Amino acid sequence: MELAAKDNAEIQVGIADYKIARNPDRLITLGLGSCVGVSLYDPVVGVGGLLHVMLPDSAQFNQVSKPAKFADLGIPLLIKEMQSAGVSIYRLQAKLVGGAQMFSGLDDKLTLNIGQRNTDKSREILKKLGIPIISEEVGGNRGRTMILDTRTGEVLIRTLGNKLKVI
User: Fold this and answer.
1) What angle do CA 60, 72, 55 make, to 5 degrees?
2) 64-115 pLDDT, tens per residue?
3) Is residue 55 within 8 Å of residue 69, measured between CB atoms?
4) Exposure winner among 22, 26, 71, 159, fewest CB in 10 A?
5) What DSSP designation does 133 have?
6) CB 134 within 8 A of CB 94
7) Position 73 in a domain
8) Domain of 80?
9) What is the CATH number of the domain that holds 68?
10) How far apart are CA 28 and CA 149, in angstroms?
11) Count of helices and strands (H, E) across the chain
């Protein structure tokens, strides 16, 4: 059930980046392995935002040149930009995708469980901000593509070898 992109733009969100879009545009991020895609959506104004989180916590780094790389900095940045577009934090709904363990078979100590840590930190930040996570598809061992449709707030997920899934 893929939506046609005739009258709407498909806006790419890179790794360690975020963007916002207004109905009827779509936001898309590729390559969510251990990274987590955080979508936020305000159904009243039809504005959505998508963040591609690479690491959970900026506190371990002396210099941060790209705050959107981190869940603890990127989520508040995304919200701030969305609020400048007329979004109310009280109406925001979150969806999470990604957080996979891409190196199965290795010792957990070697892999640092980055996917799980990205997921946990994203959940923690959203909870602190009072934003409900209404749906998620996280974990596993496959990469995903995530598409946020600002017409409906639906998130479409493509996984290699599987049918398109809507959450």
Assistant:
1) 60
2) 889 999 999 999 999 999 999 999 999 999 999 999 987 765 555 555 789 9
3) yes
4) 22
5) E
6) yes
7) yes
8) 10-166
9) 3.30.1330.200
10) 9
11) 3, 10
Rounded distance between C-alpha atoms, residue 74 and residue 67, angstroms: 6
Reference 29, options 108, 124, 120, 144; nearest CA is 144
Between vectors from CA 72 to CA 48 and to CA 98, what angle results, nearest 5°? Answer: 60
Cα 147 from Cα 167, distance rounded (Å): 10
Q: How many domains, in total, are found in the chain?
A: 1
Find out whether 34 and 99 touch, Cβ atoms under 8 Å: yes
This prediction has a pTM of 0.90
Query: How distant is the alpha carbon of residue 6 from its chain centre?
Result: 24
Helix, strand, coil in percent for the chain, rounding step 5: 25, 35, 40
The answer to the question of residue 4 being in a domain is: no
With both helix axes pointing from N to C terminus, report the angle between 71-84 and 114-128 in degrees, rounded to the nearest 10: 40
35 noted as active-site residue: yes
